[in-house]
């Protein structure tokens, strides 16, 4: 049994289940008791608490992700480092890993691949802008949400780019199928390391396979350093050439040949989306042992035909004979003169055109930045900004940009007006005044405003029971929607509870004193009874019952007079009913009297009883043609001692059908479902 499950960490996080196990930490699903929301706790394993290297890496992860704030990066809520436990609290992601998604779908479409890749790159762009290199980008560290969006997780071996690499072991960390050549060699890593890993992931998404497979980690690492991956079109010919070129460039072994930033790769993906048939014409040459990257889009400066041979480089002259060279001098001179004239004319024309040309720049990612930091920032002098909407959001703080009309990575002309949407922060709602209203009404009002609530009952002598005493936070405070409010509800005064003694049979003075000593109120009622005068014959609340202090108890005390025990009863019968019926009178379930009447000739059923004490008197009725169908008609509670008769039940419906199928026993029950 895991030692954290079912426990509360720091009296705040209620641990529910393990949702993941990693190399140095386990991830748990928990409830944040402060916010009542699900969170994920990443807890360093106990065996690493004494390992300075693992402690440093764990602290490094919290340091890395705590400075990041991006919709595509898992959000950090809390961190804790002490000698007994190291943990990071993050938002709980309800989804599945990209690895699981690929395994389930086998092969992703080009559209799905671009959609996911752009989000990963936007997350990395934000991290790289903050000087953080992830260094372990792989599908297992990318969560796919139910709405199709993604979150990058696990910055466990991330480090700040400005920090020096620490050890060869650390430099080579990362899952071997996705590590870059420089990681495999144990060399320094930078942002382009993450770019290489993205290329591997895109390869896997589009083909369902990995570019390099081997018998062990070492052989795979060597492949990353030395071998070229298959082209994705050789596995799936339907993949567009432009998409293949993007993957090839991302997976170049030389860092200088890869995309130099996430923004560059984002730009190409957006360009591909606009024109899926595009051919970027990225080429890679090895001339005379001098390997370099070549982009044929800018062919005028990079053409391989403009390079010299080895001999020309050494001598500085052509291998052609001086004789041929001398013959060409006049010709070349004429050509040169003509060329100069043509170039002058071209430059004049070009100047006229270029004077009207507007430069294009790459659109930066402004989402997540403070609007004040953007409008006054010289880095964005090429743009004009307009705030077109301000709205409340749960994800972004006040004054943070949450949308831009031109997407990050697109080419845009200088001085273009960029329309921005800016957050007003989380919408705050005023706590209403709930004082002295019934707590159920208070709950309904808070629920209608979007608040959660927790009822706390306390004693209060000044507020009626079930009425609101106060709230926490108090009225007029402003809170975000979904916040929890405590409702303090009155239970009345804090009155002690007393066990009532049985005083029946005692003298009036003794019974009253015993009750008075317990701070119970008494009321005396004298009734005719054959018991000795002054003897308590009954009490309104029976002995051993628990009541609050100050409760009144009525004592029935014998007057010493013999009671008149005869009671007369008169039962009204419904009008316009005909037929002969048998009436039976029961006293506490025992038949005492019966009579057959023709209800067409009489409007009342009258009878008399003699008895003592409190009794239940029930009158039943049945049709003489079917005496087995006996039904309750009327019921009384009778106190023969006090000459009190209380009707507690009457059923006129029994007369509506003389052949009703409902039947009862010869002795009627003391309770009936019909009476309730």
Oligomer category = single chain
**CATH architecture descriptor text of the largest domain:** Orthogonal Bundle
- Class by alpha and beta content: alpha+beta
CATH class of the largest domain: Mainly Alpha
Arrangement of strands in the largest sheet: 1-2-3-4-6-5
Instruction: Tell me what portion of residues adopts beta-strand conformation.
Output: 25-35%
Mean pLDDT: 81
| CATH H-level superfamily title of the largest domain | Transferase(Phosphotransferase) domain 1
Which characteristics define this entry?
676 residues, Transferase(Phosphotransferase), domain 1, 6-stranded antiparallel β-sheet, 16 helices, alpha+beta, 5-stranded antiparallel β-sheet, Trypsin Inhibitor V, Chain A, 6 domains, disordered C terminus
Describe this structure as you would to a colleague.
The chain contains 16 helices and 35 strands. With 676 residues, it is of the alpha+beta class. It folds into six domains: 8-91, Phosphorylase Kinase, domain 1; 96-288, Transferase(Phosphotransferase), domain 1; 363-423, Trypsin Inhibitor V, Chain A, CATH 3.30.10; 430-489, Trypsin Inhibitor V, Chain A (2-Layer Sandwich), CATH 3.30.10.20; 497-558, 2-Layer Sandwich (Trypsin Inhibitor V, Chain A); 566-675, Sandwich (Immunoglobulin-like), CATH 2.60.40. Strand 9 (142-145) and strand 10 form a beta hairpin. Helix 3 packs antiparallel against helix 10, helix 6 (191-207) runs antiparallel to helix 9 (241-250) and helix 9 (241-250) packs antiparallel against helix 10. The radius of gyration is 46 Å and the shape is elongated. It starts with 7 loop residues before the first strand and ends in a 26-residue tail after the last strand. Residues 160-174, 287-294, 296-329, 350-355 and 657-676 have low confidence and may be disordered.
């Amino acid at each position: 049994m895991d030692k954290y499950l079912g426990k509360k960490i720091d009296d705040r996080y209620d641990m529910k289940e393990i949702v993941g196990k990693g190399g140095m930490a386990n991830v748990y699903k928990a409830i944040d008791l402060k916010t009542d929301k699900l969170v994920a706790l990443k807890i360093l394993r106990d065996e690493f608490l004494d390992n300075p290297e693992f402690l440093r890496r764990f602290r490094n992860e919290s340091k890395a992700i705590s400075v990041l704030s991006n919709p595509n990066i898992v959000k950090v809520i809390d961190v804790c480092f002490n000698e007994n436990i190291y943990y990071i609290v993050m938002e709980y992601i309800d989804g599945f890993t990209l690895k699981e998604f690929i395994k389930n779908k086998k092969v992703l479409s080009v559209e799905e691949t671009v959609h996911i890749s752009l989000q990963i790159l936007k997350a990395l762009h934000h991290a790289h802008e903050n000087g953080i290199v992830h260094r372990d980008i792989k599908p297992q560290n990318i969560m796919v949400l139910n709405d199709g969006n993604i979150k990058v997780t696990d910055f466990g071996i991330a480090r700040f780019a400005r920090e020096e690499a620490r050890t060869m072991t650390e430099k080579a960390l990362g899952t071997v199928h996705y590590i870059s050549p420089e990681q495999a060699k144990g060399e320094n890593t930078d942002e382009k390391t993450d770019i290489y890993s993205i290329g591997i992931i895109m390869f896997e998404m589009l083909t369902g396979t990995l570019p390099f497979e081997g018998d062990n980690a070492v052989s795979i690492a060597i492949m990353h350093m030395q071998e070229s991956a298959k082209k994705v079109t050789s596995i799936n010919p339907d993949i567009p050439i432009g998409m293949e070129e993007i993957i090839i460039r991302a997976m170049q072994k030389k860092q200088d040949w890869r995309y130099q930033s996430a923004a560059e790769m984002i730009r190409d993906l957006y360009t591909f989306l606009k024109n899926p048939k595009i051919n970027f014409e990225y080429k890679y040459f090895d001339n005379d042992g001098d390997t370099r990257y070549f982009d044929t889009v800018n062919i005028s400066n990079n053409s391989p035909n403009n390079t010299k041979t080895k001999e020309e480089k050494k001598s500085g002259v052509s291998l052609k004979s001086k004789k041929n060279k001398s013959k060409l001098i006049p010709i070349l001179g004429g050509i040169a003169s003509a060329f100069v004239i043509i170039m002058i004319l071209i430059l004049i024309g070009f100047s006229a055109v270029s004077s009207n040309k507007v430069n294009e720049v790459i659109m930066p990612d402004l989402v997540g930045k403070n609007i004040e930091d953007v409008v006054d920032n010289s880095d964005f002098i090429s743009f004009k900004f307009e705030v077109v909407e301000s709205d409340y959001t749960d994800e972004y703080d006040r004054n943070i940009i949450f949308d831009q009309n031109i997407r990050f990575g697109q080419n845009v002309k200088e001085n273009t007006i960029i329309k921005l949407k800016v957050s007003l922060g989380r919408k705050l709602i005023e706590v209403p005044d709930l004082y002295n209203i019934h707590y159920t009404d208070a709950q309904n009002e808070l629920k209608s405003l979007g608040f959660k609530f927790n009822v706390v009952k306390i004693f209060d002598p000044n507020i009626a029971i079930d009425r609101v005493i106060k709230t926490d936070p108090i009225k007029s405070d402003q809170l975000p929607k979904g916040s929890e409010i405590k409702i303090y509800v009155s239970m009345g005064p804090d009155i002690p509870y007393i066990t009532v003694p049985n005083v029946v049979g005692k003298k009036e003075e003794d019974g009253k004193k015993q009750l008075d000593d317990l701070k119970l109120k008494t009321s005396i009622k004298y009734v005719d009874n054959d018991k000795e005068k002054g003897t308590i014959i009954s009490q309104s609340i029976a002995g051993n019952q628990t009541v609050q202090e100050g409760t009144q108890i009525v004592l029935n005390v014998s007057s010493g007079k013999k009671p008149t025990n005869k009671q007369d009863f008169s039962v009204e019968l419904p009008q316009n009913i005909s037929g002969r019926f048998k009436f039976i009178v029961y006293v506490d379930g025992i038949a005492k009297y019966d009579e057959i009447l023709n209800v067409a000739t009489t409007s009342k059923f009258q009878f008399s009883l003699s008895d003592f004490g409190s009794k239940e008197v029930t009158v039943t009725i049945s049709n003489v043609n079917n005496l087995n169908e006996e039904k309750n008609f009327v019921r009384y509670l009778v106190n023969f001692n006090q000459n009190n008769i209380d009707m507690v039940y009457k059923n006129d419906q029994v007369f509506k059908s003389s052949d009703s199928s409902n039947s009862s026993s010869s002795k009627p029950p003391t309770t009936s479902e019909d009476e309730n």
